[in-house]
Structure formats: C-alpha cells, structure tokens
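User: Working on a comparison across species. This one is DUF547 domain-containing protein from Photobacterium frigidiphilum. Can you predict its structure so I can line it up against the others?
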Amino acid sequence: MRSLISIALLLFSTLTFAAPKAELWAYWQPSNNASSAQISHARWQQILDKFLITESKQTLFRYSAVTTNDKDNLDRYLRDLARIDPRQYSKNEQFAYWVNLYNALTVQLILDNYPIKSITKLGGFFSFGPWDDTLITIADQQLTLNDIEHRILRPIWRDPRVHYAVNCASFGCPNLLDTAFNGQNKNTLLEQAATDFINSSKGVSITGNQVRLSSIYDWFSSDFGNQSELQMHLNQYRKGHNIQLNSVSYGYDWSLNQAK
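Assistant: Here's the predicted structure for DUF547 domain-containing protein from Photobacterium frigidiphilum:
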C-alpha cells in the first residue's frame, strides 16, 4: 500500500501545466440575429470596486475581507449570468459575458476554498488546478473554465489579447482589471490589459541581452505566432525599449494574487 502511495505522489509531483489547444465548440457560435440589448455586470463591478486593489502596478484581491453577504452578491451575479443565453446578444456583449463569467467563477473558486496558497492546489488529486472541473450550466450546457477559454473565447474571437483578459488568480497572470468588460469597452480594456502586462516585469523582463517572458507566450505560442510575429506584438505595446527576442527564457508565478 505504501509503495502505491509513493508512486501516486511521484506521478503527482511530475504534473506540469499543459495549455489546451483552441478547439471550437460550435454550439456557442454567435447568432446572426443578435439582440442589441446589454448584459448587466453591475454586481461584478461592485465586487471589483470593493476588493480589488493595486500595489506596484499589480492588482491584488482582498479575499480575506470578503463577507458572507459579499459571497451572496457574487453568487447572485453568477446565477443571473446562468439564466442568460449569450448567443442571443451581439458579439461584443458575448465576449464581455464570457470574460466576466470566467473571472467571476475563478474568484468564487478561490473564496470557496480560501485560504489556499495557489489555485493549482484545487481540482482532483491528479489535476493541476480546477480548470477541467464543471462549474456552471449555461443554456443547458455544463461548462468548465477550460471550455470558456479554449473552446469559446480563443477559437471564436481568435484574438491573442484574450490571454490578457482572463485571470487565473495568480501573481504571474495578467492583472484582473478593475473595470468589468461590457460590449462598449471591450477593445479599450483589451488594449489596456495588453499594455499593462507587456510593460510589467511578469510579462517581459529584460536584463542586458536576456529576455524573460511570461510562460503565456510559450504555452500559447500558436496564438501569438512565430518569433518574429511575437516580437512585433510585444513591441506594439512595449514602451521605451525595442524588444529583440534573441535569448529568451520563460517563467510564471502561480502564487495566489491575494492582498496581505
């Protein structure tokens, strides 16, 4: 029995993050007869206003300050979203819906298991994080975080800036923005998120000729293109320094993005 436990622990210790491929879930393709109505994200904005703070350009979440009433407010927001079929709305409204849903579900996951040191501690025994756990049902379809990011957002919008919008509750992740996405501010927030991340040390760090990039650019290289295309993308947003990707390494900090 002890040997089986040892083998299991060894296998678990070798698990590493493997980024899923973008594989379209055709069920969620935007409708051609979309409503012009807007989806309210007011409750999510209330949560962000109350618990998100910025320290040294890093947004941190005050998980320890969240009360039962605040959790109920977040739960009500997610229940409101669960009653919506996003396919009936404009493509911009759908994008905002999916990003806010992803981020709100992630915060709820942390709160339901707090205190924890890292989101990677969640999920099953042989799982690296909770991304394949079923968390919500939308339009009669059960969804995981991986479904939202890799089967809906990435393949439908084909925009690498998606990676700056969804937040995994970790220091290494692009900041959780202090403004909820909506159909009108989508592009403005994506541009802000890209600029903030690429000009942060967790996004791009340069020491002499050595460039250390976030592992996001390694995990999702298919979204950012070849080295030349990635370099062009980074320099589009980088301020004050032309990036040359001659000697590159990657890194990522999975520590929880909590405010102490």
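For your comparison, note: Residues 37-251 form one domain.

User: Helpful, thanks.
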